[in-house]
Design brief:
- By secondary structure, the protein is an alpha+beta fold.
- It has five helices and six strands.
- Helix content is 39%, strand content 18%.
- The longest helix is centred in the last third of the chain and has 18 residues.
- It starts with a helix and ends with a helix.
Length: 158
Protein backbone atom coordinates (compact mmCIF):
# COMPACT_ATOMS: atom_id res chain seq x y z
CA UNK A 1 0.00 0.00 0.00
CA UNK A 2 1.11 3.53 -0.64
CA UNK A 3 1.80 5.79 2.32
CA UNK A 4 -1.21 7.97 1.46
CA UNK A 5 -3.51 4.94 1.28
CA UNK A 6 -2.40 3.73 4.70
CA UNK A 7 -3.03 7.17 6.21
CA UNK A 8 -6.60 7.23 4.86
CA UNK A 9 -7.41 3.71 6.03
CA UNK A 10 -9.67 3.12 9.04
CA UNK A 11 -6.99 0.66 10.20
CA UNK A 12 -4.30 3.40 10.25
CA UNK A 13 -4.34 3.94 14.01
CA UNK A 14 -3.80 0.27 14.83
CA UNK A 15 -1.94 -1.30 11.89
CA UNK A 16 1.74 -0.82 11.24
CA UNK A 17 4.69 -1.76 9.08
CA UNK A 18 6.47 -5.04 9.70
CA UNK A 19 8.90 -7.37 7.99
CA UNK A 20 7.97 -10.84 6.76
CA UNK A 21 11.12 -12.97 6.73
CA UNK A 22 9.49 -15.83 4.81
CA UNK A 23 8.60 -13.48 1.93
CA UNK A 24 11.66 -11.22 2.37
CA UNK A 25 9.52 -8.11 2.22
CA UNK A 26 7.90 -5.42 4.31
CA UNK A 27 4.15 -5.27 4.77
CA UNK A 28 1.55 -2.94 6.25
CA UNK A 29 -1.15 -4.37 8.48
CA UNK A 30 -1.28 -6.76 11.41
CA UNK A 31 0.51 -9.91 12.47
CA UNK A 32 -1.62 -12.95 13.37
CA UNK A 33 -0.66 -14.84 16.52
CA UNK A 34 -2.13 -18.31 16.85
CA UNK A 35 -2.02 -20.92 19.58
CA UNK A 36 -3.31 -24.24 18.26
CA UNK A 37 -3.59 -27.88 19.22
CA UNK A 38 -1.18 -30.40 17.66
CA UNK A 39 -3.83 -31.07 14.99
CA UNK A 40 -3.89 -27.40 14.00
CA UNK A 41 -7.17 -26.52 15.74
CA UNK A 42 -7.07 -22.83 16.73
CA UNK A 43 -7.40 -22.30 20.49
CA UNK A 44 -6.31 -18.67 20.95
CA UNK A 45 -5.64 -15.99 18.40
CA UNK A 46 -4.85 -12.30 18.31
CA UNK A 47 -4.00 -9.61 15.81
CA UNK A 48 -1.30 -7.12 16.75
CA UNK A 49 0.75 -4.32 15.29
CA UNK A 50 3.87 -5.93 13.79
CA UNK A 51 6.11 -3.61 15.82
CA UNK A 52 5.02 -5.29 19.07
CA UNK A 53 7.23 -8.21 20.08
CA UNK A 54 5.91 -11.75 19.81
CA UNK A 55 6.67 -12.54 23.47
CA UNK A 56 4.65 -9.52 24.62
CA UNK A 57 1.67 -10.40 22.44
CA UNK A 58 1.74 -14.08 23.40
CA UNK A 59 2.06 -13.26 27.09
CA UNK A 60 -0.94 -10.91 26.85
CA UNK A 61 -2.94 -13.66 25.09
CA UNK A 62 -2.06 -16.21 27.76
CA UNK A 63 -2.75 -13.77 30.61
CA UNK A 64 -6.17 -12.97 29.15
CA UNK A 65 -7.14 -16.60 28.52
CA UNK A 66 -4.94 -18.58 30.93
CA UNK A 67 -8.00 -20.61 32.02
CA UNK A 68 -7.82 -22.41 28.65
CA UNK A 69 -4.33 -23.74 29.45
CA UNK A 70 -4.29 -27.04 31.33
CA UNK A 71 -1.70 -27.69 34.04
CA UNK A 72 1.35 -29.36 32.50
CA UNK A 73 0.38 -28.37 28.96
CA UNK A 74 3.30 -27.99 26.57
CA UNK A 75 3.55 -24.79 24.56
CA UNK A 76 5.73 -25.13 21.51
CA UNK A 77 7.35 -21.95 20.25
CA UNK A 78 10.12 -20.81 17.98
CA UNK A 79 13.50 -19.30 18.87
CA UNK A 80 11.91 -15.88 19.29
CA UNK A 81 10.38 -17.04 22.57
CA UNK A 82 13.79 -17.35 24.25
CA UNK A 83 14.12 -15.45 27.49
CA UNK A 84 14.04 -16.18 31.21
CA UNK A 85 11.16 -13.81 31.93
CA UNK A 86 8.89 -15.39 29.32
CA UNK A 87 9.79 -18.94 30.38
CA UNK A 88 9.09 -17.98 34.02
CA UNK A 89 5.70 -16.58 33.00
CA UNK A 90 4.75 -19.76 31.11
CA UNK A 91 5.79 -21.84 34.13
CA UNK A 92 3.70 -19.58 36.42
CA UNK A 93 0.52 -20.43 34.48
CA UNK A 94 1.26 -24.16 34.83
CA UNK A 95 2.52 -24.83 31.32
CA UNK A 96 5.93 -25.75 29.89
CA UNK A 97 7.62 -23.89 27.04
CA UNK A 98 9.60 -25.95 24.53
CA UNK A 99 11.45 -24.20 21.73
CA UNK A 100 14.42 -24.89 19.43
CA UNK A 101 17.83 -24.23 20.91
CA UNK A 102 19.68 -21.09 19.94
CA UNK A 103 23.30 -21.35 18.81
CA UNK A 104 24.55 -19.34 21.80
CA UNK A 105 23.09 -21.59 24.52
CA UNK A 106 23.50 -25.12 25.88
CA UNK A 107 21.44 -27.76 24.06
CA UNK A 108 18.10 -28.33 25.80
CA UNK A 109 15.40 -29.25 23.33
CA UNK A 110 17.14 -29.81 19.98
CA UNK A 111 15.80 -28.94 16.55
CA UNK A 112 12.12 -28.96 15.58
CA UNK A 113 12.42 -29.44 11.81
CA UNK A 114 9.39 -31.69 11.29
CA UNK A 115 7.24 -29.89 13.82
CA UNK A 116 8.13 -26.53 12.32
CA UNK A 117 7.01 -27.81 8.92
CA UNK A 118 3.64 -28.75 10.44
CA UNK A 119 3.26 -25.27 11.98
CA UNK A 120 4.04 -23.63 8.65
CA UNK A 121 1.48 -25.85 6.90
CA UNK A 122 -1.26 -24.48 9.18
CA UNK A 123 -0.34 -20.91 8.24
CA UNK A 124 0.01 -21.89 4.57
CA UNK A 125 -3.53 -23.27 4.62
CA UNK A 126 -4.82 -20.04 6.16
CA UNK A 127 -2.96 -17.86 3.67
CA UNK A 128 -3.32 -19.96 0.52
CA UNK A 129 -6.53 -21.98 0.54
CA UNK A 130 -8.48 -19.68 2.84
CA UNK A 131 -7.14 -16.39 1.43
CA UNK A 132 -6.18 -14.79 4.74
CA UNK A 133 -3.63 -12.38 3.24
CA UNK A 134 -6.24 -10.92 0.88
CA UNK A 135 -9.05 -10.53 3.40
CA UNK A 136 -10.34 -7.19 2.02
CA UNK A 137 -11.38 -5.79 5.42
CA UNK A 138 -11.52 -2.01 5.75
CA UNK A 139 -12.35 -1.60 9.44
CA UNK A 140 -11.14 -3.21 12.67
CA UNK A 141 -14.51 -4.90 13.20
CA UNK A 142 -14.49 -6.20 9.63
CA UNK A 143 -10.93 -7.45 10.00
CA UNK A 144 -11.72 -9.40 13.18
CA UNK A 145 -14.87 -10.83 11.58
CA UNK A 146 -13.03 -11.98 8.45
CA UNK A 147 -10.07 -13.47 10.31
CA UNK A 148 -12.46 -15.18 12.73
CA UNK A 149 -14.37 -16.64 9.78
CA UNK A 150 -11.15 -17.99 8.23
CA UNK A 151 -10.16 -19.60 11.53
CA UNK A 152 -13.65 -21.08 11.88
CA UNK A 153 -13.36 -22.53 8.36
CA UNK A 154 -9.98 -24.04 9.30
CA UNK A 155 -11.53 -25.52 12.44
CA UNK A 156 -14.41 -27.00 10.47
CA UNK A 157 -11.99 -28.57 8.00
CA UNK A 158 -9.98 -30.16 10.82
Amino acid sequence: MSRETTKRSDLAGDAGYGYCASHSRYFWGFRLYLIATPEGMPVLWALANPKIGEREVTQAMLERDHHLIRHGQIILGDKGFAGREFEAFVTSIGAQLIRPDRKDEKPRFGSFGGIRQWIESVFDTLKGQLGLERHGARTIAGLYARVGAKLLALSAAI
